[in-house]
Amino acid sequence: MTIKQALISVSDKTGVLEFAQGLAAQGVKLLSTGGTAKMLRDAGLAVTEIGDYTGFPEMLDGRVKTLHPKVHGGILARRDLPEHMATIEQHGIPMIDLVCVNLYPFAATIAKDGVTLEDAIENIDIGGPAMVRSSAKNYAGVAIVTDPEDYQPLLAEMQANAGALQLATRFGLAKKAFTHTARYDSMIANWLTGLDEGAEAKPAEAAPTPAIFPAKLQLAFDRTEILRYGENSHQSAAFYRDTNPVAGSIAAYTQLQGKELSYNNIADSDAAWECVKTFDAPACVIVKHANPCGVAIDGTLLGAYEKSFKTDSTSAFGGIIAFNGEVGIDVVNAMNERKHFVEVLIAPSFTAEAKAALAAKANLRVLVVPISRALNALEFKRVGGGLLVQTPDNFTAQASGLKIVTKVQPTAQQIEDLLFAERVAKFVKSNAIVFCGNGMTLGVGAGQMSRVDSTKIASIKAQHAGLELKGSVVASDAFFPFRDGVDVLAEAGAKAVIQPGGSMRDEEVIAAADEHGLAMVFTGNRHFRH
To answer: Among all residues, which ones are annotated catalytic?
Structure first.
């Protein structure tokens, strides 16, 4: 299909002048609207404004300009139906072969502080989506262009094919166009249905209050890759990114080298990265099967790595390692010296020397992720026939918020270690018990149905690693339902405990801590992780 006439009407004008110039150079007549038409005309292009084309002026502050039979007739007419072509000829409507449209910036508008309902409403595009959908429906005769990234490839294809675009190209553009309008409508629906009741009655200058959970939730993700398989080899899988991924999230990774990421690689990498980026001091997190098996902070990343590896060197084999600073050759050499097999290595950056040394390990997946503590606005978990939605767990205990509930007061060093342990426990599967000391994990008990079993496992892990628990501190992700867990950790040598509190047997648990001479503090917030 040869492109003879194009309609261009865009809000995002990135690259559109060059696109229009390329079309004009191939003999394509140009139609346009408002600001786009002025920009093209100022650049010396011959362009017919839509009002002159239809014989009907733009009106109602631009709300009505392309909603006209001469526009939509020229787009929707089927070239293969004689009766359509006869009708078009009868009414003197020329064909429009290419439509280049992107929509009013609704997303940018609602992202502004203090945006009013009126501002949002005025940035809901009507004519644009209508043209996009009309063009996409009639892809057999019309090319619909909604993405500036397509401008140059389309010009190149036209140049190579005497001004024509192939059917496969037009069909691909149509699929992208329907996705474009679907996401645009979903964004509007999510924002409007997420407003508090009575938003429509507020004064025009007042900013409406968004509710956390819209009554109707529309989600949009972009597939970035087909994975080799899912959690198991008989399952198929793919990775989809949020259309606007949170800064510093694992979805923002750049892979420097190594094999393709697997489903489990990405899930474990997310667990490691979300944990390590919460620390200010140089930190290292080693994750195995979604649980941290070694976490440490130190004055250097090398020191943090050495300490985290000591926690559980057996589990660290084949794990995921994340750092919160630039990885240098010293860290890589330390990994090589102990022949530490790693599936994925993650950091905000790597020195040139480190990259060169890592390149020798062709299969090692090395990811660069920008550091940021930003969290997703909502978290999702798929269940049979539905979706669980929650706000993220953004609570991190601070010294000023701790409630000391025992006769023994924790020392300043114990407070520091308790806060470190609580931060690690936040990322360990429930029931979570974490022994720590001197800025490192000493034993981690995860994912047990009984909290006392997690306590025993954490103690056993420390013994296997040859780590001394005498004088250690312990974090529990939720309250102790009975005193038995406290008895076990005291027997292991712990001297201070941090937990949420809130059990009906808190007094019994506190009495046990006093009996063992432990310091115990409450945070008031649990960290269940399922």
So the answer is: 137, 289
